[in-house]
């Protein structure tokens, strides 16, 4: 075959079952679609489409040809998209809101990797634990942990965050090691987001109300308080990875750890989202696609 002309038009007709519908999809005239397919059939020496006044269907040869041709069209579309993305020159400011150890140790490096690909792009990362109003505060998207209550926002899951309970050796030597979540009522617990801790007890989710001498909504501060022996902490595993590797903290209540929750990318339902925002969101989802909290 000397030319690929007509293949895109043929696939469009096969999928829309009409010349007019295919023309609308491709943004060209019906006569152009008809001419291209006629030339394709002439080159192939067979009829691909059975035409009627109401419907266009595939012939036996057309069905076989479509199965191969559609993969060529998909491959061409993907190649075009890849080239277009490589030629994108993003500029302006990308404003992101996030907080906690995950944002500092994992999200920030991911955004650094993204911005390094676009020299004219600026990142404004606000590491503040307050609940921002994306529209009023001019935030393009935020990273939020836990249950999402704002139904006006679109949310895409970024990572799952299983949790674990830990304490320092100093604390356990002084206060003993809890063997069951109910024993936490007799311990000092370091409260972060809430004082109702969920555990898996005999296959059921059960909540234990805890209290202690230290409360903070900053994961790094909770981590420091735990290292100093102020109590038992219960947070996502990645928060403790480094100190566990160094033996500074000891896991407790492991058979009862809950599943935890997830971190999400949330953003406004904008009809015309800036390209820098869309590409950044897609980049982060792909970046963390193989995330393993363990």
From TrEMBL:
Membrane-crossing segments per the record: none
Pfam families per record: HTH_1, LysR_substrate
Domain HTH lysR-type, residue spans: 10-59
Key word rRNA-binding present: no
Entries under InterPro entries matching the protein: LysR-type_TF_proteobact-type, LysR_HTH_N, LysR_subst-bd, WH-like_DNA-bd_sf, WH_DNA-bd_sf
Swiss-Prot/TrEMBL keywords: DNA-binding, Transcription, Transcription regulation
Annotated source species: Shewanella surugensis
Name this polypeptide is given: LysR family transcriptional regulator
Family label: Belongs to the LysR transcriptional regulatory family.
Database matches in PROSITE patterns: HTH_LYSR (PS50931)
